[in-house]
Amino acid sequence: MKQWTILFKKEFKESLRNFKWVWIPLVFILLGITQPVTSYYLPEILKNFGGMPEGVIMEFPMPTAPQVLAETLGQFNQIGILVLVLAFMGVVAGERNSGTNIMVLVKPVSYTAYMLSKWAHMTLLAFVSYLSGFLIALYYTYQLIGSVPASDVVSGFVVYTLWLLFVTTIVLLFSTIFKSTAAVAALTLGLSIILSLLSSITPELMQWSPGMLASHSYYLFQTGEANDGLWLSVVSTVLLVVAMLSISVYIFKKKEVATHTS
Amino acid sequence: MEEILNELQSVRWDLLAPIAIVSFVLMIVAMVDCFKHGKTNGPQWVWILVIVFVNLIGPILYFIFGRRSE
């Protein structure tokens, strides 16, 4: 545990130095501001610049507050995840390529503690960024459009957190498996897009899938009730996260032992 | 003219201003890091231009692709 804390602090310091703790939360905050604002002004923008022929009467209904929150999560799902994946693609692979991990691993450090500290730090940073972006979006939605019941907001927020947790764990897994950081980014993004797409095309077959979590949280915002299969995908996501973590620790141990003994 | 002025007044500037502030802060942070850290992929002056002139995503592009660690 002591080792873990030291390693975690090392990760934390490194990310402070390269400003990850500044710019990633700022990106999420920016997304959290712009989405409610564009939703609010979209009818007016279309009216002024849409080039509608005279006499055409089109009423653009103002989106509801839950809709705006869901749209914001949609932004996080695209740009937010893109940024997170690109920022963390080198979490293990980059250190291995540059050889800096040897400085840590020559000391009697447990590989499990090493990997878990990386994972925990990455997840914490992702969570803090997501939380700050979401709170800003909530404030803007409240100011511009209207309120959403607090319990729905909290439950939707928690469900979406699990999906982010799943994505960061995939990044860690791929970053241990592959050498090239570009492959890590491409595969993680590809996998998360495929999972989300499949769950919107065939929701019945994909009830277990973590890709359903985003739509579950949209549903929670809109209705305040759990959609069918919420618990199934929550449980399977938690299991998958634990499994992927164990696999990455295992692969990392095997690879490192192989490089140090050969 | 009056109409335009009225419309401009109805815009919620208090809510729009933070967008400019946040993107300005991002730009400053990226600039400071680019100068102090000094190691970039490609020429440094190109990254300075990207940070200053590519709106909103310039600083992000620098942090993701331009900054060389170690």
UniProtKB/TrEMBL annotation, chain A:
Provide this UniProt record's keywords sorted from A to Z.
Answer: Membrane, Transmembrane, Transmembrane helix
The superkingdom listed in its UniProt entry is Bacteria
For the keyword Transmembrane, the answer is yes
* Pfam family of the protein (one): ABC2_membrane_2
Entry keyword Lipid biosynthesis: no
Transmembrane regions listed in the UniProt entry: 21-42, 76-94, 124-142, 154-174, 181-202, 230-252
> What's the protein here called?
ABC transporter permease
What is the scientific name of the source organism?
Answer: Evansella tamaricis
TrEMBL record, chain B:
Major location (coarse): membrane
Q: Which UniProt keywords apply?
A: Cell membrane, Membrane, Transmembrane, Transmembrane helix
Q: What residues does the Cardiolipin synthase N-terminal domain cover?
A: 25-67
Lineage: superkingdom: Bacteria
Its membrane topology is listed as:
Multi-pass membrane protein
InterPro entries reported in the protein's UniProt record: CLS_N
Membrane-spanning parts: 12-32, 44-65
The places in or outside the cell where this protein is found are: Cell membrane
Supply the name of the protein.
Answer: PLD nuclease N-terminal domain-containing protein
